[in-house]
Amino acid sequence: MSSHLYRLGRAAYRRRVLVVLAWLLVLVTGIVLMNTLSKGTNDTVRIPGSSSQNALDTLNHVFPQVSGTSAKIVVAMPEGSSVSAQPVKDAVGAAVDEIDALDQVSTVASPFSSLVDGAVSDDDTTAIITVQFDGQKNDLTGATLDAVRGSAAQLQSRIGDGARVEVGGSAFDNVIPTISVTEAIGVVLALIFLIIFLHNVLAAFVPIVMALVGVGVTESLVYAATGVMTIMSTTVLLSVMIGLAVGIDYSLFIISRYRDNLAQGLDPEESVARSIATAGTAVLFAGMTVVIALVGLFVARIPFLTIMGVASAFGVATAVCVALTLLPATLGFFGTRITPRARRSRSGRDGFFGHWVRLVTARPLVTIVLVVAAVAALAVPATGLRLSLPMESAAEAGTDVRTTYDTISDEFGPGYNGPLIVVVNVLDSTDPIDGMNRLGDDLATIDGVAHIAMSTPNESGTYGIVQVIPSGSPDSAATADLVQALRDRGPAMADRYGFRDFAVTGITAVAVDVSAKLTSALLPYGVFVVGLSLVLLVMVFGSIAVPIKATIGYLLSILASFGVTTSIFVDGHLASRLGADFTGSLICFLPIIVMGVLFGLAMDYEVFLVSRTAEEYVHSGDPVQAIHNGFRKAAPVVSTAALIMLSVFAMFIPEGSSGIIKPIATALTVGVFVDAFIVRMTFVPAVLTLLGHRAWSMPERLARALPRFDVEGAGLARQLSLEGWPADPREAVATRAMVVRDRNGAALNRPIDLDLHPGRIAVLTGPEGSGKSELMLGLTGRLAGFDGDARVAGLLLPERNAAVRSRSVLASGGKDVNGVLAEGLHRGVALAAVDDADAVIGANRTARARELIGRLVADGACVLLTGANPGSVAHVLPAGAVPVEIPMEPPPQHARPAPQRTGDTAGADERSARSTILLEEASR
Questions:
Q1: One domain, residues 827 and 781
Q2: Could you tell me which residues belong to the region Disordered (predicted)?
Q3: Which of these, 110, 310, 311, 903, could form a disulfide with 721 (CB 3.0-4.6 Å)?
Q4: 638-692 per-position pLDDT tens digit
């Protein structure tokens, strides 16, 4: 991977003008598509297949008068006045007639109608006019809504001073998240942190510009997609928030490594290429984890949530693409102008991060206990987590919608803001009108029912509805319990009157179903995310303990995030300080969104912090010293990245809507803080110290089964250091001081130097246990690690194992030798190898084997054979062939020569010498 990214970075640098123009074209194309195709966001929530959604769809056909969105006009008289006075009734009647005549209005229910019950408060001071529209909120025109407001204003003037007429309801619920100036402050803070960290204003602006380009491309295409699919407004703002944060961070990681390369004396082009190959690999890995986690939201099987995850994942993927292509192209215009200034030596001084890591690792067990206890205390409130969809109660205090909601709650009870609709099929009933009235009376006996506002069949006598007013608020646990109670007991009640197809629906019931479905999806999604993190981190670090520790740390961050957010937005602690006007529940998709985003960020910090520690461990072999050195090198950039994340997320809190963005931004802010500063920089060093050498071990069988993800580019460093070897580029097989080892780390052979041109035959001879079979595995790309250097067909091993395997064949372990050789001939391989050729090629197959080997050699392939001695394989050699004999001699008893990798100046590639694990690197 790193070698591909190295070439990508160099290509982007050299063709920087073309790359910049290409991204400019993408951005302009996105803007054009947005202006051409966009139909705007739609906040209608659907959960296909659910009971409430099916019933709502049925109502659209059989009872359209109650299936669309609605509005409520509240008439409140001053104390001592009656809303039932005749002048008020006349004014209300006139307003009802005006509104009923409007386009898109289905029905208007006067509070004084004989068909409406409970629309006048007990103290006779307040009344509710219910307006039912054709279609959902996004279908309504501005003219219709303005006309309703105008009629309400005229009603106010007719009633006179002292009375209040308020307009609200779901039709006027504009709890739509928007971007304000406050969010821009987060970008400014990020710029300040970048300037402080990079000590260069020009360099600090680059990550900001990269993030803005990525967000611009993402949002223009997301808005264009609204022309062909339903996309919620929350989706747009969430993708902006995530795209900004990761876009800045990813560019920071790469530009930081670029400046380090410049400081080491590399020219700008090489610095760009190496920074993309190293930090860019880590960025690609981190971005991939976020994308997978966000796309994984499909496990909930809720369309709007899947689209939300895909849009956010698209924003992250765009940020990665920008960082890997546009950023290196942009750096090409700056050259050495952002080279960091030489800093005064601080030899012998640890600095803040050095002191911190020594403090937390001095008593690692105490540190771990303190961290777990602190996180547990923060997580306790999460036991009271309650989820719901946003309703009028989440509107900003002082708005007409919120005032109307509060007035209805105060005068009629909170349940009037979220009535439930019971739908039954009455086609088989002989008296549907009387049956519906009796059904309403029966339903009124269920605990949690405050009132039955309406119970009637439709005009065709096919379906009937009962409007149930709960005693609790729409987002309360009591209302969710009532929905379940109605579904449990209602069908039996309906059977008494010959009714069937009993269902509970309405906006409130849909919200309950969405919340329940999301809650049930949390566990499988959590298993998906945790399992993914374990597998990916095993491939990154070649360890079992490190991934388990990383996953535990992620779970600690999630629990703390949920606990603090629940304490604020459900329990109400410090809510006023954050401007949270609405408390009592959290937006239903908050947990699953936060889990996905924090997963990617946690793995991001884990990789950048622990990979440096792993590299130091390879150099020193001292786990404690590796932790201290790696932490001091990685902690500054991780801290800056975390502060940037915090500044972006935190600035969405002050102006974010109380019910949607504010809690999500709070949860992400808390999660990032806990994960970066408490888990990664405190918990992680302590755990690694406690584990010692055990942190970097893994069972050999697992090591061979999994590929290796080289996030630090150690393999690339080795490839670059060996660019001039071998001197003759025509050599098909070349080794230098190559030594293979057994699973215990003992050397099996003396160092081997080999130089074979195309079309040569080599015979490896020696007794059992001399390493000849293992050498064959290594040269055909089937051995994860060895000492020394080796190239096959110009490809460096083991870094290019996968490519070498595709250009070689190996017959061993009882395989059909002639079949394998024929396959190699067909594929035109560069190397064909037969292990134990003297034993596996019998007399009946000798002629065919000789023929195939001859044809392979004629085609320019090298052939490797192993045998007890050169004469033992002579029967399969083509006529006139003069093989190269390679005697394999075991080293002196108990000798374990130090690993030799000539030219590996980076030193990071010596992991195989320090570890007992040979980690398969076939993925390269």
A1: yes
A2: 887-924
A3: 903
A4: 888 888 888 888 887 876 555 677 888 899 999 999 999 999 999 999 999 998 8
